[in-house]
Design brief:
The complex is a heterodimer. Chain A is of the alpha+beta class. Chain A contains 12 helices and 15 strands. In chain B, the strands form 4 sheets. In chain B, strands 3, 6, 7, 8, 9, 10, 11, 12, 13, 14 and 15 form an 11-stranded mixed sheet that branches. In chain B, strands 2-16-17 form a 3-stranded antiparallel sheet. A two-stranded parallel sheet of chain B has the order 1-18. The longest helix of chain B is centred in the middle third of the chain and has 15 residues. Classes of the chains: A alpha+beta, B alpha/beta.
Chain lengths: 575, 385
């Protein structure tokens, strides 16, 4: 796992974990508080419902009692039911009977009731408000069922008696009660109540998210999304079977439901915001981590790449170049330390090479001795032969000279080649103060003369200090670089620029061309011995240049790209 | 309202008159046969020259009025009243059902204007003047739907467009009870003009005596307006062609509802339907109740329908029963009758009639057999001896 990946993961975890914990905590706290608030509202509503229904039942009971007393005191009632001594016949006076038939309806409307029925002691309906024309029907089971339900309600803590009663237009639900009174020694019963249909029940809910529903036996469950939060039982009296006067007692319920959709919507909204915050935080953390990783890892990677290029022959690698040179952080310090280390390595390598050179000089001296001996031996033989001829056969001296002249010339040529090759392999350093501009100008003229197609340009800075170098070596360095630059043009028109400028503690000499440039692979092998891309090249030019520069205590850098030319930069300490 | 707006109903009313003759009834008193109007005031003046049947004379000693304000309960009644005053009829039928000679148009319409709702309980005023000789002006005001008829008897102080009714025809028992307590008003019963029937498929015939007792019980206890047990003869029993022509041919095999339907604007029909539903649940259920009503008790119920829905229900013919008002006299045209379902039998229930509330001092007027009032431009009338 790379350093960058680790850094990104660390940032992501550091940002997401605390935020996630915060989000979960906020969500749980909010859900708990909202739930508690909803529970309080439900408890309040249930309390109000119980109180309202209890008040309603008491009110209904009181109204029925008052109506019964009023009816008992009314002479028209007495005349209607007792005049003939037969309360359940239709022989009473027409006026009183019609009054009685309409009485329940009038009393029901004035009393704010929805159900009112008067029965005599045999259970015959004398007057009915909710079903005016059901008079004379026998229904003794109704008041008995309501009375039984009222007793059951009291013992079972039900909130009232729910009566399912018939009207001409259909069924009607009422919160009912029963009362009785006596007239002329006969007992009459009143059954009455206020409507408690679904609409009236729905109006009991004071809050939009709370609903009160009347759930009859056999009704289905509340709709999906509603949570049942309370149930209030009601003793339910309903017609049973096909018989008109048969009633069953069971239990209905006032079901308080809560619409949790708002709470769920709030949670979903909170979840969305949490997800959005986590996502944004993750992106921000990744971005910040990537930026920091780039800030830290890229210079490290560059240092690693530069370090990878360092070896004993290539100790001119500069670590503290560009932005890294001015960084004041650990990366800058590391670059400077690496530069110092490579400087020490260069010095050590120079000393090592000097030792090697000295050793090599001995070997070369022996080789030169041997080679010179080899070259001088034919000459010595020719001279000895000529001496012998001159002493013994002077007349043939001319002929013998002509005969042996070729041997002399070939030996001399051999020695010249030998001398030239040795001079190339092991230049002698004679350090002195040199004018780099003069060296550049002379090289420019030499190269210009040799390559007429190349445009040779010199940019010589004024006031460039003298460097401490061997003039011949300096010239060899520059001639090699300029020659390579001209060769890089491949015979096509182009430009070769020779430039100088002063740098701290040294002089920078630049040889640039507009030729074919080098690939990375070519660049990596450019300074190897015997590596060449030119026909007939020896492969020693750049390696010799590099050694010569290092011998002068300088550095050599190359900036090149395929098709864009090359730029060789030599920095040599001042004198 | 204009003559040409009378439409089919007015034409039907004219047809009735074209087929009947007028009969003169001398001041119907307490001994008047059932169905004839009574006069709650003094007899007609002796100076009247032309005898008129079913004449109503409310207190001839009171000063006569130049304008007679008649309040009709609804547009249909107003149209019938207007046509009766402004069209010549070749024959008349009086309040006892006797056919007599026709009569020329006595009045002509000179004014027709709507009345703002804030002006009183009536919504339209029709002004009629005598067609020939000078005489009283007749104002016909149309009671608004839902208005209390008692308000028509009591003009608000300073009201310009609405006047207190001199004659009000109503079936509302509360209005009649109120009028009876007012000394300047006389309540005159009009002929029995409606018979309520239960139209249903199925059910058995009741014994005649039991049927009559049931009808009387319905009239006495179930219906709050003036009613009696339906009394034969019933014109549709001897002449089924009218109802047969109206039969739409519904599907007798179609499943039936358990509803007893009735016109929503007819209180008497509602009371009868309610009683039928109650009887269906009783142990001594009458045999003439249609079968579906006697099915499981909680399913039977009364259902009010507006005119459009009732027409559809009659055409469908799948209700358990229909409580409908039919004219007591056979109409000349069957078009005005409800379209009864195919195969339905008619069970007569009760007869009802309206009452005329008459202010003392109003010029005498006659009552036709269908309960419509007829006014006269002159006072030369007398009860037939």
């Amino acid at each position: 796992m790379s350093f960058r990946t680790r850094l990104l993961l660390a940032f992501a975890l550091a940002a997401l974990v605390p935020l996630g914990v915060l989000a979960v905590g906020v969500r749980r706290e909010m859900a708990a508080r909202l739930g508690a608030q909803a529970d309080r509202r439900v408890a309040s509503l249930v309390g109000v419902l119980r109180a309202d229904l209890a008040t309603e039942s008491r009110s209904t009971r009181a109204r029925l009692h008052a109506l019964g007393q009023e009816l008992a005191a009314d002479n028209r009632f007495r005349l209607a039911v007792l005049e003939t001594g037969a309360s359940d016949t239709s022989d009473a006076g027409d006026a009183e009977r019609r009054w009685l038939l309409d009485w329940a309806g009038e009393a029901m409307r004035l009393g704010g009731l929805a159900v009112l029925q008067v029965q005599n002691d045999s259970g015959r309906i004398l007057s009915s408000g909710h079903f005016r024309n059901e008079y004379d029907r026998l229904a003794p089971a109704l008041p008995a069922a309501v009375a039984r339900a009222a007793r059951t309600a009291r013992t079972d803590s039900a909130v009232g008696v729910l009566l399912d009663v018939r009207t001409p237009q259909g069924a009607l639900l009422a919160l009912a009660d029963v009362d009785s009174f006596e007239v002329g020694g006969r007992r009459f019963t009143l059954v009455g109540g206020r409507a408690l249909d679904s609409a009236a029940v729905a109006r009991l809910a004071p809050a939009a998210e709370l609903a009160v529903r009347l759930q009859m036996p056999g009704d289905t469950a509340p709709r999906v999304g509603d949570a049942v939060v309370a149930r209030l039982p009601l003793a339910h009296v309903a017609p049973h079977g096909a018989a008109a006067d048969s009633f069953a007692l069971d239990t209905a319920q006032l079901v308080v439901t809560q619409d949790r959709s708002a709470l769920y919507a709030l949670r979903r909204g909170l979840d969305r915001w949490i997800a959005l915050a986590l996502g944004a935080t993750l992106l921000l953390a990744l971005g910040l981590g990537a930026w920091l990783a780039a800030r830290v890892s890229r210079p490290l990677a560059e240092l690693a790449a530069k370090t990878e290029r360092v070896d004993l022959d290539r100790l001119d690698q500069q670590f503290g170049t560009g932005a890294d040179a001015v960084r004041d952080d650990e990366i800058g310090a590391l670059a400077r330390l690496l530069d110092a280390m490579t400087a020490r390595l260069r010095a050590g390598a120079a000393r090592l090479r000097e030792a090697e050179r000295r050793t090599a000089v001995g070997d070369v001296a022996r080789q030169v001795n041997h080679d010179i001996k080899n070259g001088l031996a034919p000459i010595r033989h020719v001279l000895r032969h000529l001496t012998q001829v001159a002493e013994q056969e002077p007349e043939r001296l001319a002929a013998i000279w002509l005969e042996r002249r070729g041997t002399l010339e070939s030996s001399v040529a051999y020695l010249e080649d030998l001398a030239r090759n040795y001079a190339r392999l092991s230049p002698a350093l004679d350090r002195a103060a040199c004018d780099p501009n003069a060296a550049l100008a002379e090289v420019a003229r030499t190269v210009e003369g040799r390559h007429a197609d190349a445009a040779i340009e010199t940019r010589l800075a004024a006031g460039v200090p003298a460097v401490r170098a061997d003039p011949v070596v300096l010239r060899r360095i520059l001639e090699n670089l300029a020659g390579n630059a001209v060769d890089a043009l491949d015979g096509r028109p182009g430009r070769v620029t020779l430039a100088s400028e002063a740098v701290p503690d040294g002089v920078r000499l630049t040889v640039a061309d507009t030729g074919r440039g080098m690939t990375r692979a070519e660049l990596e092998r450019a300074f190897d011995d015997f590596y060449t891309t030119k026909d007939g090249g020896t492969g020693l030019g750049l390696s010799v240049v590099r050694r010569l520069v290092l011998d002068l205590g300088g550095t050599l850098r190359v900036e090149t790209a395929p098709g864009q030319g090359s730029r060789f930069i030599v920095e040599i300490p001042t004198a | 309202m204009r003559h040409d707006l009378a439409g089919a109903r007015a034409g039907a009313a004219l047809g009735v008159l074209a087929a009947l003759a007028a009969v003169l009834l001398a001041a119907c008193g307490p001994g008047t046969p059932a169905g004839a109007p009574g006069v709650a005031a003094a007899p007609a003046p002796a100076t009247t020259a032309v005898p008129e049947p079913c004449l109503v004379v409310a207190d001839p000693t009171a000063p006569r009025r130049d304008t007679i304000t008649v309040v009709a309960a609804g547009r249909e009644a107003a149209e019938r009243l207007l046509v009766r005053q402004t069209r010549e009829v070749p024959a008349r039928i009086d309040c006892e059902g006797r056919v007599g000679p026709g009569a020329p148009a006595a009045f002509r319409l000179v004014g027709d204007a709507p009345v703002p709702a804030s002006a009183g309980p009536t919504g339209r005023v029709l002004l009629l003047v005598p067609a020939a000789a000078p005489g009283p002006v007749v104002r016909i005001e149309v009671l608004r739907p839902g208005a209390d008829p008692r308000d028509a008897l009591d003009a608000a102080p300073g009201a310009l467009l609405h006047r207190a009714a001199d004659v009000l025809v109503t079936r509302d028992p509360a209005t009649l009870a109120y009028a009876r307590r007012r000394r300047e008003l006389v309540v005159v019963p009009l002929p029995w003009d409606r018979t309520y029937v239960l139209a249903a498929v199925g059910g058995a015939a009741e014994p005649p005596d039991r049927a009559a007792a049931l009808r009387r019980a319905l009239a006495r206890d179930a219906v709050r307006s003036a009613a009696r047990g339906a009394e034969p003869p019933f014109w549709w029993e001897g002449d089924a062609s009218c109802l047969a022509a109206a039969a739409p041919g519904g599907d007798l095999t179609a499943p039936r509802t358990h509803r007893i339907v009735y016109p929503a604007d007819d209180a008497t029909a509602g009371e009868l339907a309610e009683r039928i539903v109650a009887l269906a649940a009783s142990t001594d259920r009458p045999g003439w109740l249609p079968a579906p009503v006697g099915a499981p008790v909680p399913t039977a119920r009364a259902a009010p329908l507006d005119s459009t829905a009732l027409t559809r229900a009659l055409a469908a013919g799948n209700e358990a029963g229909y409580v409908l008002p039919l004219p007591r006299l056979r109409p000349a045209s069957c078009a005005a009758l409800p379209r009864l379902p195919a195969g339905a039998t008619l069970v007569p229930l009760v007869d009802t009639r309206a009452h005329a509330v008459v202010r003392r001092g109003v010029a005498p007027f006659a009552v036709d057999g269908d309960g419509t009032l007829r006014f006269f431009p002159d006072s030369s009338l007398s009860p037939r001896p």
